[in-house]
Design a protein that fits this description.
The chain is mainly α. It is about 70% helix and about 0% strand. The protein has 2 domains: about 1-45, Homeodomain-like (Arc Repressor Mutant, subunit A, Orthogonal Bundle), CATH 1.10.10; about 55-185, Orthogonal Bundle (Tetracycline Repressor, domain 2). Helix 4 (about 45-70) crosses helix 5 and helix 5 packs antiparallel against helix 9 (about 170-185). The longest helix is centred in the N-terminal third of the chain and has 24 residues, at about 45-70.
Length: about 190
C-alpha cells in the first residue's frame, strides 16, 4: 500500500475511534507505522488529512449515486434511485458513511450556501432542480425537496446501520421515498 493511502487508512481508523477533535498526527503516524514528521511529506497537516478523508468518502458516495442514475433520462425517475443508493452506501461503506456524516463537520453551513461543486450534495440538488422543472414546480422548492429526500434517506441509513440492522433497506427506502417524491413533484 502506498504511503498516502496507508496514512489515510490509519487516519480513518483514528477518526472513527476518537472523532475529529481526538485525531492527532502522532496517533495517525503511530498507527500507519511512520514518524509524525514523515506525514508532512504527504500532507500539509491534520486539516489536510481530514479534508482528504472527507473528499475520498464523498467521491465514493457520488460514484454510487451516479451509478444509480446512469442511463436515466428523466430527473424525476432519478430521485428514488438516488435515495436508495444513499441508503445502500451507508450499509455497504459504513466507515466512509461515518466519516462523511458523523465524524467530520460539514463544509456547508446553511441552506443559503450552495453545495460544493462536484460533491454528492451538488448532484442531489442539480437532480432535484431538474425534476422540479420537469414537473413545472418552482425553483425555490429545490432546497426543501433536496433536504426532504436527504433527511428521509439519511434517517433510514442511520437506522438501518444501527438499531434496525436486519431491515431490508432497499424495500424500506422504496416504500418510504416513493410516495414522498410523488408528493413533492405533484
Amino acid at each position: 500500500m502506498e504511503p498516502r493511502a496507508r496514512i489515510l487508512e490509519a487516519a480513518q481508523a483514528e477518526l472513527l475511534e476518537n472523532g475529529a477533535d481526538g485525531l492527532s498526527l502522532r496517533a495517525v503516524a503511530r498507527r500507519a507505522g511512520y514518524s509524525p514528521a514523515s506525514l508532512y511529506e504527504h500532507f500539509d497537516g491534520r486539516d489536510a488529512i481530514l479534508q482528504a478523508l472527507a473528499d475520498e468518502a464523498d467521491a465514493a458516495l457520488r460514484g454510487r449515486l451516479e451509478a444509480a442514475i446512469a442511463g436515466k433520462r428523466r430527473a424525476a425517475l432519478m430521485l428514488l434511485p438516488l435515495g436508495c443508493a444513499y441508503v445502500e452506501f451507508a450499509q455497504r461503506e459504513p466507515a466512509a458513511f461515518q466519516v462523511l456524516f458523523h465524524r467530520l463537520p460539514s463544509r456547508r453551513r446553511s441552506p443559503e450556501e450552495a453545495p460544493r461543486p462536484g460533491s454528492s450534495a451538488e448532484l442531489l440538488h442539480r437532480t432535484v432542480a431538474a425534476a422540479l422543472a420537469e414537473a413545472g414546480r418552482p425553483a425555490r422548492e429545490v432546497e426543501t425537496v433536496a433536504l426532504g429526500l436527504w433527511s428521509l434517506a439519511h434517517g433510514l441509513a442511520v437506522l438501518g446501520t444501527s438499531h434496525l440492522a436486519g431491515l431490508d433497506l432497499r424495500a424500506a427506502a422504496t416504500a418510504i421515498l416513493k410516495p414522498a417524491i410523488r408528493g413533492w413533484l405533484s
